[in-house]
Inverse folding.
């Protein structure tokens, strides 16, 4: 018996301020709000594109994301080309978000794939990358994948 084909459905993230996070993810990723509940004790937003759910935000936490704890390492989104990564980086900088490396960097020394690495308002690590075109800059870490250590 063979296993069924699997595909990631959506990613759910705990946030501290639903309105702030919804605005951030919509601005950076051009997400639509597919559904939401913004009042009461159970606040959430369903975000996606073209009717496809990609990210859910749940306002049910406090503090900041603890990168030194087991759990989510980072959330990555692939875009078609390096120009789309450059546009995302410009949007980030326009919002006052500084990339965690020196702008757009490759996934590893000699790799063509790469992107921009940053955090959301709660400190959740995010990546926007393209499969080619990032090989114009040096890799931040020569002996390990960039996306693993940021």
């Amino acid at each position: 018996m063979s296993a069924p084909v699997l595909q990631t459905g959506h990613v759910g993230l705990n946030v501290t301020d639903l309105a702030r996070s919804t605005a951030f993810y919509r601005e950076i990723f051009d997400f639509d709000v597919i559904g939401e509940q913004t009042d009461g004790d159970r606040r959430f937003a369903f975000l996606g594109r073209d009717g496809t759910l990609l990210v859910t935000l749940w306002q049910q936490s406090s503090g900041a994301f603890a990168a030194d704890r087991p759990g989510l390492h980072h959330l990555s989104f692939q875009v078609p080309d390096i120009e789309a990564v450059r546009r995302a980086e410009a949007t980030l900088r326009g919002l006052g978000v500084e990339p965690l490396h020196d702008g757009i960097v490759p996934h590893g020394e000699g790799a063509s794939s790469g992107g921009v690495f940053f955090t959301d308002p709660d400190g959740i690590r995010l990546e926007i990358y393209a499969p080619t075109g990032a090989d114009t800059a040096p890799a931040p870490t020569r002996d390990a994948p960039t996306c693993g250590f940021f």
Notes: Helices lie at 18-29, 82-94.
